[in-house]
Specification:
By secondary structure, the chain is mostly helical. The chain has a single domain, classed as Formate dehydrogenase/DMSO reductase fold (Up-down Bundle). It has 14 helices and six strands. It has helices spanning 9-37, 43-53, 62-74, 76-85, 87-109, 114-141, 160-184, 187-218, 220-227, 231-235, 237-254, 260-280, 291-294, 298-325, and strands spanning 145-146, 149-150, 283-285, 289-290, 330-331, 335-336. The strands form three sheets. Strands 1-2 form a two-stranded antiparallel sheet. A two-stranded antiparallel sheet has the order 3-4. Helix 3 (62-74) crosses helix 4, helix 5 (87-109) runs antiparallel to helix 6 (114-141) and helix 6 packs across helix 7. The termini are far apart. The model has no long low-confidence stretch (mean pLDDT 88).
Length: 337
């Protein structure tokens, strides 16, 4: 009999997929709050908006570390190709995240320059988000590869399509941030968040439609996957469900619902994530390498999995606990209650 061997590639694919989505969701809404922070009309509003994410914002970036380290260890070939291809937007993103963190801390400690740090926090959020969107667009379009090496220019990632996805992600994170503020605040700030949320939603839908048209037109393989028979029938629920969720988000932002906008925004991101996965599966380096071809050895994946399965539940538990402790509305004078 052949000895049973556990295939670890699907397990690592699932771990990285969930890790990336949790990063987009969790860091996405606090980056979105930072994007909307720049539109706050006064110091009291800015303080309250900042307090809504203060207890949990830095822990959200744990998932960025998990995703990047997991990609390097479990799919090293993909890491070796993708990172040089998107070096500049990743560097810009990291610098923006660092400056954003500095601004977050210094606005409380450097009262004489509080306005400067406020602008720094908002612009750091916008730039980091836009850079992430450029990485996403470059990934969808694919990279110039010769054998196992990236052979393109470091500026190849800056294309009209990647600039569109960058703008789309800024609008998407703003929608998530608006949903969070609707959930966590009340009064004038909540009303303002609902208004900005509706504006962001319109922008998101336009951007999603543009990307959904552009991608199959630019890539015959993606067009065949979505529009060939019988795939057309099997995949039709994806845009239909997306449209239903978008209508739900609009109604929630226009009505009394407080949890609906945030939950609906999560649903839109989930459907977009699913759409990208359907378009590119099973590629991890689009047009060149599949997940299995880019994977590290079985022994390496098994060694990494032991530590990951120990740490991942701990990360999930402390993340869930922090959100549970700081549940409820935030107030400018007493914080959470």
């Amino acid at each position: 009999m052949m000895p049973f061997t556990l295939d670890l590639v699907p397990i690592w694919t699932f771990i990285l997929g969930v890790g990336v989505f949790l990063y987009v969701l969790l860091d996405g809404f606090d980056l979105g709050v930072g994007i909307l922070f720049g539109f706050a009309p006064d110091t009291r509003s800015r303080n309250l908006i900042m307090n809504s994410i203060a207890p949990i914002w830095d822990g959200n970036e744990t998932w960025l570390i998990l995703g990047s380290v997991g990609l390097m260890a479990a799919f090293p070939l993909a890491f070796a190709i993708i990172i040089p291809a998107v070096y500049f937007p990743i560097a810009i993103m990291l610098l923006a995240l660092v400056f954003r963190g500095v601004a977050f801390e210094f606005r409380y400690r450097d009262a004489d320059h509080k306005s400067f740090w406020d602008h720094g926090f908002s612009w750091g959020s916008i730039i980091a988000t836009f850079a992430q969107g450029i990485v996403l667009g470059a990934f969808i379009q694919g990279f110039k590869v010769d054998g196992r090496h990236f052979v393109g220019s470091s500026f190849d990632c800056f294309t009209p399509f990647s600039l569109l996805t960058g703008l789309a992600l800024v609008l998407g994170y703003a929608l998530l941030g608006a949903g969070w503020l609707v959930l966590k605040t009340d009064g004038d700030i909540q009303l303002t968040a609902r208004r900005y949320g509706r504006m962001a939603l319109v922008g998101v839908l336009i951007a999603v439609a543009a990307v959904s048209i552009w991608t199959p037109l630019a890539d015959p393989d993606i067009a065949h996957r979505w529009f060939s028979w019988p795939n057309l029938i099997f995949l039709a629920p994806v845009p239909v469900v997306t449209a239903v969720i978008a209508f739900f988000v609009w109604r929630s932002l226009s009505g009394p619902s407080e949890a609906g906008p945030f939950i609906g925004a999560i649903g839109l991101f989930l459907m977009s994530y699913l759409g990208i996965a359907i378009s590119l599966w099973p590629m991890i380096v689009p047009h060149h390498y599949t997940l299995r071809e880019a994977a590290s050895s079985q022994s390496t994946q098994a060694f990494l999995l032991v530590g990951t399965l120990f740490l991942l539940p701990i990360i999930l538990l402390y993340t869930a606990w922090s959100y549970w402790v700081f549940r409820g509305k935030v107030r400018a004078d007493i914080g959470y209650h």
